[in-house]
Amino acid sequence: MGGRENADQLAQATFEEKWRQANPWEMDGAEFDLRRYERQFAILADRHYERVLEIGCGAGHFSRMLAPIADRVIALDIAPSAIARAQAMSAGVENVDFRVANVMAYEPQAEGRWDLIVMAETIYCLGWLYSCFEVGWLVAELFAATQSGGRFLMVNTYGGEKDYLLRPWLIDTYRDLLRNVGYKTEVEERFSAVKNGVDLQALVTLFVKESNGEALSNRQCR
């Protein structure tokens, strides 16, 4: 039990310290991140969603983009400073509920089923802090909490040799974990753009929970 409590404390302390900075991860205004948000939104915007769960919402940039295509968005982040920033920047956006929460302690089925779950640049942080079993259990719980026919958008950037959390084989493993619990791939692509003069790629995968076992043919976008 102590190991889990230590991981929870380390997670909040680490990300709270990061979000107290003016521009954590150099995301504000970065071409790579802004274009990635636009691509994520374009992939999702072919339908309207009743209930959306965003895990690791940060300052809420993508949460606000989701608001027009959803009845309600619940956006979680473990860092109080991130949620405070998201709330301050979201005045007038009434259908987004920003909450301080550790998703590892969150019960995704407690509030009903989700039509869309978004987890961008988050799961590899969980993989750093928690055991493989715990991360796998979370993904299985998220699958159980997804509405039949509902979607799950996962986005993770591929890193270089020294980006240990972002090793391509780890990023692909997290993608495969969602497949292994039962999600089917609807769209998958590698998004490319430049950040700080460096060419980066992100793996963008849109999964679906098939309705009543009905097969959905995969669409591969390049």
CATH topology: Rossmann fold
Structural class: alpha/beta
Largest sheet: 8 strands, mixed
Order of helices and strands: HHEHEHEEHHEHEEE
The helix tally amounts to 7
Work out the number of β strands: 8
By CATH, the superfamily comes out as Vaccinia Virus protein VP39
What Rg, in angstroms, do the CA atoms define? 17 Å
Oligomer: single chain
CATH architecture: 3-Layer(aba) Sandwich
Sheet with most strands: strand arrangement: 3-2-1-4-5-7-6-8
Q: Report the end-to-end length measured between terminal Cα atoms.
A: 44 Å
Proportion of residues in helical segments: 25-40%
Mean pLDDT: 91
Strand content: 25-35%
Overall, the morphology is globular
| The CATH C-level class name | Alpha Beta
Unreliable stretches covering 5 or more consecutive residues: 213-222
The structural domain count equals 1
Short note summarizing the structure:
The chain has 7 helices and 8 strands, in the order ααβαβαββααβαβββ.
Kindly describe this structure.
The protein has helices spanning 2-19, 31-44, 61-66, 80-88, 123-129, 132-144, 168-181; strands at 49-55, 70-77, 96-100, 114-120, 146-158, 184-195, 198-208, 219-220. With 222 residues, it is α/β, with parallel strands linked by helices. The protein has one domain: Rossmann fold (3-Layer(aba) Sandwich), CATH 3.40.50.150. Mean pLDDT is 91; it is low at 213-222.
How would the blueprint of this fold be written?
Blueprint: H1 2-19, H2 31-44, E1 49-55, H3 61-66, E2 70-77, H4 80-88, E3 96-100, E4 114-120, H5 123-129, H6 132-144, E5 146-158, H7 168-181, E6 184-195, E7 198-208, E8 219-220
Parallel strand pairs: 1-2, 1-4, 2-3, 4-5, 6-8
Antiparallel strand pairs: 5-7, 6-7
